[in-house]
Amino acid sequence: MPTVQDLARLLEAAAPLAYQESYDNAGLQCGDPHAEITGVLITLDCTPAVVAEAVRRGCNVVVAHHPVIFRPLKRLTGANEVEQTIISALKNDVAIYAAHTNLDNVRGGVNDKLAEKLGLLKTRVLAPQTGTLARLITYVPNRPEDQQADVAGRVLAALYAAGAGQVGQYSDCSFRTEGTGTFTPGNGAQPAIGAQNQAETVAELRLEVLLPLHRQAAVLRALRASHPYEEVAYELIKLENTHQEIGAGLVGELPEALTPSAFRQRLKRQLLVPVVRHTAFEKPIKTVAICGGAGAFLIGAARAAGADAYVTGDVKYHEFFGAEGQLMLCDVGHFESEQFTGEVFRDLLTAGFERTFAVLIAETPTNPVQYDC
């Protein structure tokens, strides 16, 4: 039977914890990582009522978007809802796992689901992250006459399998340059080429691949395991390049331009929202930027991307002025912009595990905001 730890590995392969924001607390919130899963209940927020529903429906894991432990807990006395949730989960042997901004910042996550609901096409990341990539350079013998021909191919295949060589939608990406390497094995060496205390000159290939920094340890293990040399020479250089597939928000195109009024009706219909707070705007809406949750920090990025509308939640009064008449800023609500995240979790879990346990969407309402329309 799969365990809670298996579930964590699966979700973190899709949304690595390395991609969460510095203030966040994604990951396993409480529970035994080695416990076998009897069922998974999916929710946007985990509350005592959600834990009770999990117990009632035979689920010993709750997967939530928002971490229940967001700030450090100094005590567990049940003095507030967060403490009550953790106490109830511990008493009932229910593990709680959260994938928050790491799921916001990856393709196939929160914003792709929102884009799907709105029918956006040709989407791209609105604010790509920097500092998440590195370049690995290594050197392998270039001796096609050997029985171990295509050493470069074997090393590269191992690096690709470990997570290197991905550039956007292209995989198995590398660069190679021919050159000459020199070395003299010492007394204790066991060289793959040459002999102890004899200077050696070898035709070599310089191999270069990109890798996400969170895969660094795995890629270096693969390099050492696949490389023929006893001592593997390599360089690992952190890059400041933006990662075009990792970052906050998305921007895309509607199938056809809509009037501002028709676009707002589309928001209400597709996102099941009773009201949309918005700025005045009279031009047709074609290019749309989105960010599930609290996305006011991306208003400037949406303007810079040439968006006609920006859809998000939690916009404060003064932040609406940030539209500067250049786009229609639409606040549909925090919960409303993320309410379909459960579908993301469900699809990942049902595709990643055999049907040995139920994956259920919580029925307990957790939106603290009510509308009187």
UniProtKB/TrEMBL annotation:
Domain of life: Bacteria
Keywords on record: Metal-binding
InterPro entries: DUF34/NIF3 (IPR002678), DUF34/NIF3_bac (IPR017221), DUF34/NIF3_sf (IPR036069), N-reg_PII/ATP_PRibTrfase_C (IPR015867)
Family of the protein in this entry: Belongs to the GTP cyclohydrolase I type 2/NIF3 family.
Protein name (Swiss-Prot/TrEMBL): GTP cyclohydrolase 1 type 2 homolog
